[in-house]
Amino acid sequence: MKLIRPLAALALVIASALPALAADAVYPPGLRLGMVPLVGLSTAKTFPGFESEDGSVKVLITELPPAAYGEVVSAFNSNPAGTGGVKQDKIETPAGLAYFTTESGKAGDTPVKRYSMIVPGAGFSGYVAVQIPENATKIYTDEAVRQMFASATTRKQVSAEEQVALMPFKITDLADFKDIRTLAPGSSIILADGNESAGYEQKPFMILGLIGATPQQADDRARFAQEAALQIPGVRESRVTMSEPIRINGQQGFETRIDGVSGKDKIPVTVVQWIRFSTGGASLRIIASAPRDQWQAAFTRFRAVRDGIQPKG
After folding, report:
1. Closest CA to 251 of 273, 221, 282, 276
2. What DSSP assignment string belongs to 59-82?
């Protein structure tokens, strides 16, 4: 009896770290990938995922481009044994076949164990990174993490309301855009008539987000806005057609328009960039693009979204 009791207690400790089989997957706000978190973990406050009460155990969940999954699979297949002490494995999940690694490392001076997993998604790759301090690995074991990974699942879409609520500003007018998707939770969002699989550039779309420190002097702001517009990803053969200071909701701003081509079919597009400057903190940057033959109608919608962006609080 003396032997059975300690063994039973140990079994309960191990079992308590495993996801409950009947539990529902938890999706971090704005993401299409979710899983059943280990007991003792709750939704993280500063990143998408889960963490322990003291913040020492972290489970980061994010989305990567769809090609990322295939690249990882190829890397696993070319070197199945792994390298440098990194252990490679795979597991079946409701989301599909997942590939993951296990390795030891340090977070500052603290020895930790790290796990990384990637799963396929519809139009994206789901990625999970786990960090567990060495002194917690007796409870959060390799098998416990494996079972959590095995619960990974995806959802087809995230509601527009959920995604918009994550942004650090209010978007009061969505101008009838059909596809709304978070690019970086709490940082940037895309509003589009098209979709990722077909290519956004074939129809009007907007990207709303915040950027860091911006120039305070008028001449510096003009130069900054033009340089930023000419470096917009995905737009080639760019030519500035207009760049001038404006007022956006009573704040100083800058409007820059460029003509260029976008996408594999080199679709002629017109792009407008608005920057609403802030004297303290991040500035609002809006990039809006439309095929040139759809520009006039699209521009009216772009302005409606721009003028409907309000501070929270």
Report:
1. 276
2. EEEEEE-THHHHHHHHHHHH-TT-
Strand ranges of the sheet holding 251-262, from the earlier edge strand across to the other edge:
179-184, 188-192, 205-211, 283-291, 267-276, 251-262, 235-248
Find residue 253's DSSP bridge partners.
Answer: 246, 276
Strand 251-262 to 267-276 pairing: antiparallel
pLDDT tens per residue across span 74-98: 999 998 877 778 999 999 999 999 9
CB contact at 8 A, 28 and 154: no
Strand residue runs (E) in 185-234: 188-192, 205-211
Q: What are phi and psi of 152, to 5 degrees?
A: -60, 135
* Percentage of the residues of the chain whose pLDDT score is greater than 90: 67
**Total residue length of the chain:** 313
Rounded (10°) CA dihedral 262, 266, 269, 272: 20
Q: Distance between CA atoms of 96 and 66, rounded to whole angstroms? A: 14
CA distance 34 to 24: 9
The answer for 277, left when phi > 0, alpha when psi is -120 to 50, beta otherwise, is: beta
Residue 49 in 3-state DSSP? strand
Band (pLDDT 50/70/90 cuts) for residue 109 is very high
